[in-house]
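Input.
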Amino acid sequence: MEIRYAVSPTDVKKYDTQQLRDAFLVQNLFQEGKLTMVYSHYDRMIVGGAVPIDEPLIPDDKETLKTDYFFERREAGFINIGGPAIITADGNKYELNKLDALYVGKGTKELKIESADKSNPARVYMCSAPAHAVIETRKLSLDGATPRHMGSAETCNKRTIYQIIHEGGLPSCQLMMGVTIFEPGSVWNTMPAHLHDRRMEAYLYFDMDEQARVFHFMGEPNETRHIVVKNEEVVLSPSWSIHSGAGTSSYTFIWAMAGENYTFTDQDPVKMEDLR
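Output.
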């Protein structure tokens, strides 16, 4: 498992393009036949990508976590962005079609990820955070998630935010996850921007053409930077950073948060005149 350490916003002011990408951009997460994971020191979030082909893939890294099994002190959310997946948690099988989600609670001893059809392999995105309570493992399809319709065509940000793992959906300890889908012609996400200093966030951008890019904006409001992101790449967003984006064409993203506050609407708005 790769380790990403937290960095100060004061240091980030001095970063060049490659330093920004090394610190905050996760690439090559989805590799055939592998489960790739990155451990972030922002709220101890782990992001991972699994593409099972011939053998089941199992989250495990005792050396990094210093626990007997992965879910000993953790919870996780799984969202499938590829072909049909089968996730087995302590003997219970869950079938996940595209954009179906599974919450797996603390204390789960055994978990494996498989593709239902290796000619059309699953591409399962995982986010995991520390957990302090045992909560039931449950599946939810996108049509059962809580939708929030946001933005307008005039401002190029008409989109639907599907809240999946949160206080009104699949309950968890501190992890929140969901999917944002844009209407045709809309490419802007979260502008005006905001902060939430009580939790970090991770963004997986996907369903993008090979030549499409998202310009992900980050940094303190008066010291903004950007990272150019392509299909199936993740940006780790510190709690002190804004997190907005604009695409060269349509895209979809999975957002995940972990930290102090479990309230989805806990946001600190940033005035447009304060952005630099």
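The radius of gyration is 18 Å.
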